[in-house]
């Protein structure tokens, strides 16, 4: 590989006390930026080593002194107590049973926001029938109905910043636990403005203030029992933004009040994977406006000091909503996404605005990684880990430009892992090469536009919330991972956006997920107009691809409202006495690694079964007017399934497959203005490939994990 | 085996032209009754051979001449046409597309009972917007909404009696297809009274008129495509009882009208496995009263001629409802149930009244049996078939007295199967021996009363509708099959009967089935009082056993309303972001053959997991007050699972297991007044068993399939 790819676009973590190592690796990796991390500092020598300096700030923590004087400004959350059986008319409910008590303390001044529920009947217990006891930290209910279960929704302060809590507990830290501020309060805003101003003055060497991230963490409610340590975890719920002040401001802005039960929701809460009610969406936008407006104030301070402001797109990202209009008003100069997967590259790249788009690669330089597996310690193989993450990331990098990559963590842990150091050097070169091609050329795309229809639309473009390994069973995250490396335009549509005009440019519309999920759409499918518009669109030539329980909602003549288009429906037992069409299988080369879904049945004899498992249709196709419906019982990412998905998406639309390989393990991208074909081998072994080009076929081999360039006009 | 068991209580089919064979087998089997069958007649010689004579009558068919003159009296059914997409405002819908047209003809005079639906919106199309064309046999809709789907609910005559149709088509019969009458019409009633009177006069040799069965067949709607020949089949739906007259009489009796859509129900119809709305239940009782009152008139005629009237409990049984009060008023002298399984023995035995309870064993003397497998033809092994059915039946015969057994079909087909003839002779002896024990003694029962809670209660005691092989995946039918041979009192409760008083005598209450099914209970679980009453009952010491999705209904704080008692709930995806309690497994000897159910989770750390599969709890137990909740993810009948079920039901209630074996393949019954233990081996191989008795243990062996008697005081 040419020497021109040896330097730049690479951010490394530095570590005081390891100045020699830091500078040696900076040289090896071609770093142009050095950063500090949670737990590491940069010495004077490193700050002045000729690299730009990123300084990490977690704006809402590290203010314990202020918080100890103003505990009422801590962040809060609604919790539901355990449910207690009424064996007599007086029921006493301890608030924190089952919760990790170091995370929470009750907000005793918030009782007017609490609610007590008969969880047997779903009815609220009148305020006069219960009282809170400060001393016992419990609620006593009077006049309970015998043999019903009761619980209390109450407001608790979160007295330990969750990421700090996690690192503390995981690594048995001895440091002082960090508390967190809620910037919803004007007093906190004033304090933070001051604090940041002082910070900027005291850090002239900092080029980029890297916010990690903004104000509100993803929801992470801990339990008291090691058999169930994390009671609720969602990357994109808004539960951690709640405070009495927020509720009051919301009520005055929207003209109606949110209650504790809107958030507790019978104990189900509101994970972003389940379609939200309008109230919750109102609250999202309300919070988004606040988060972005106060973030702008902070960024303005940073800019006043001639520094840039980047934001880390993780952890305390809630309310930021990078796809929102408000985000654009903040004025961030860069956004940094940590990535395990291809879809996260697209997620980062899709953030609009003239920002620097930077990826933080994995593994993080830490003794242990995912699920406690060893990384930079005995038994770990960080070089192989890095390769495996990289090949996922690289597929997506072929399709979309990214400005920078980098690492994070504790640099000296790389000692003893020279393979890893070499691998990173190689990855950095590959990255620069691909970035260079994007600079010199567009990348060839197949003339096929894919739409993804979800409750969220663009707001959750290229994500289902969180990393792939958090919810690997969601069909859509698997589809996104496949699409991340495919040469299509992809557009994300919400149900409001299902209009004839918006659909006009879409060739294939995908709706994928389990019933009720925000990915399938849940109650949005009660809108007849959606069904009608899509039916007309397919009839005119569109392809509607449904996966798992697409368009599923109860109360209609089909369980899947798009069943007439898809040609399949999903029985919930009500058709136990109906006959089922025998599932014949058409001659088809399609062989997805796919499981049957119980209950899937053909609505009549017109639906073609492209693949079947145990007499259940798992892939079907049905002509509908000039268009077609396609059904898949599930979708799981793999190179082979991606290959098959491609043929499903293009079938009947794309006649000639150009610039793609015949080998699912090798992806190909063509940069016409650079006259270059890029082949990337996602497997550890050498692969042979045929690549179809306009005037024939190129046959070649690509080494394991390698990136190969072929000149081609 | 003693010679005393050589004769009686056995009904055989006779066959003209095979008089020698018939009499020889009568001798061999000890037959005291001879019968005719569909397709066979009895000659003078057979009628006067000293056996009582059963004559088979299917009262509503064999009247083609009358029907040809009065086609308006044929039976009917509501059908839904196919669903047609509106690509313009005029939509034409052919009525019979997809239906087997030899079964149906449109009732052109019934248009006022028809309805047209927009199946996209669930809205009815106003009557003015559609018209029926006699010539094209289609409905034309005007002013349709584009891209919606439409269908027509219409009333069709059923012009071929379904059992005759089945035999015709299956056996390529050449005979004239038989039509069927609807006795709802007074003119038909008059005709049938006359006809039966004449028949009785013409058949002095008949001792027992065996009605096969009454008026309305189980629902069986046929399709036109061999890939889906049976569109809807339910043993216990009332769709085949409908006529304009019935609808009018219902309206005047109940003060409200039933519509076609009450029966079509968005195309789902109303299988008896799904909880019925009150309207449908009203219609059931309305029909039951009519069926039983007219049946009584017919039985009275039979009695006037000094004959007895038996009814076959199958085929055209709808409306008869042997567990209804009205059934008792008919005055039948006997009821005959064909049996493959143990639960069917209990179903027959449970029919109240001083009737002869008779079983017709399988295999039926026919060339092919279940699913077209060979029986009395090359490749068949009817002797082994008979043994395998018999061991299922025999388990239940140990627990409840039955008066008679018998066979049906074409006798000469037994030629060439001497093993079969011997097997039947042996079965008949075993039967007489067990019957004799019941005559001389009570049978020992464990002091444990099991309640079965379903939407149907007693009305579907010992059945889920139809034979085991029709719906082998229903948990309850599997439980009933196990219970059929267990030494408990079993009571069937409907939700109306869940009262403190009724529960007092119940030790263990079982609720088993998928969500929405009539076996689980569906919307009945919306009644808070049910939940409260059961919660109190368990807290006071009861055991609530839930299987699959017990107490499941949507809209509450748990998906299973009894979750606090069971200690488990079933997630539908809404808890995707909740933590799940780690499933540890208690030391337990329990090893059911049982599959996991996705979504099942422990509600807290208090629930004991007795068995787990892939980290999913499949059997759990939870203390609740003085009682307990037990959950099973599914239940499938097998001797081994029955053995495990027994220990689950008795656990904590029964201290000492008396008169049961340690071998799941060998059942034991104790007849104290006869001082006899009976051991029955359900397997083909010899088995060793230990039987716990009051003062020790008996160790013995039982030959394959054999019944062994042991004297014991």
Written overview of the protein:
Chains A, B: Residues 659-707 form the Lacto-N-biose phosphorylase C-terminal domain. Chains A, B: This is 1,3-beta-galactosyl-N-acetylhexosamine phosphorylase. Two copies of one chain form a homodimer. With 713 residues, chain A is α/β, with parallel strands linked by helices. Among the domains of chain A are: 77-163, Immunoglobulin-like (Sandwich), CATH 2.60.40.10; 449-650, Class I glutamine amidotransferase (GATase) domain (Rossmann fold, 3-Layer(aba) Sandwich), CATH 3.40.50; 666-711, no CATH class. The first copy, chain A, has an eight-stranded parallel beta barrel with strand order 1-2-3-13-16-17-18-19. The radius of gyration of chain A is 27 Å and the shape is globular. The relative contact order of chain A is 0.08. At the A-B interface, strand 15 and helix 15 of A face strand 15 and helix 15 of B.
